Amino acid sequence: MRIKLLFILTLLFTCIACDKEHKDFTVKTIQLNHYRPHGLPKQLLYLKVLENDGTTVLAETDQYPSEYTLPARFTVHPQLSLPLYAQNFTIQLWGDVTGFLGECEVNMHNYKIVFPIEMEVDNEELGVSLSGSWQ
């Protein structure tokens, strides 16, 4: 009996995941997990979300003092709705004193998500987690 119930629930979750292919994902917050400071001065950090062309800014975040501990959660302004699996984008870290600090690309084709609570993206210079909801 329990095996049948487990199978039915698994099948239901799979159908829900397939249904997300043509939905929009709204990015509400970005959590900064790590970055390479390299002896930088104290400054206010913020993130930019850019289209893959690297020039069009889609959204920015509030600021966070660099001397505080990580991880730090940033609110995205405006909340960003993206067609999941269709549009790649780039997240850049900026400082108000030093300017550009690093970036990482979010390749949406790498994600098959049933319930997207957090998506983690990182490289050597920057690591972030994206949180949001379906529309």
- The structural class is mainly beta
Shape: globular
SSE succession: HEEEEEEEEE
Report the uncertain regions. none
Largest beta-sheet characterization: 9 strands, antiparallel
Overall strand count: 9
Mean pLDDT: 78
**Could you tell me how far the N terminus lies from the C terminus, measured between alpha carbons in angstroms?**
35 Å
SS element count, helices: 1
Beta-strand share of residues: over 45%
Radius of gyration (Å): 17 Å
Instruction: Estimate the helix proportion, in percent.
Output: 10-25%
3D architecture notes:
The chain is mainly beta and 135 residues long. 13% of the residues lie in helices and 50% in strands. Strands 1, 2, 3, 4, 5, 6, 7, 8 and 9 form a nine-stranded antiparallel sheet that branches. Strand 2 and strand 3 form a beta hairpin.
For this entry, give a set of tags.
13% helix; 9 strands; 135 residues; mainly beta; nine-stranded antiparallel beta sheet; single chain
Q: What is shown here, in short?
A:
This protein has 135 residues and is mostly beta strands.
Write the SSE topology.
Blueprint: H1 2-19, E1 24-35, E2 44-51, E3 57-61, E4 64-65, E5 72-83, E6 89-95, E7 99-106, E8 119-122, E9 126-134
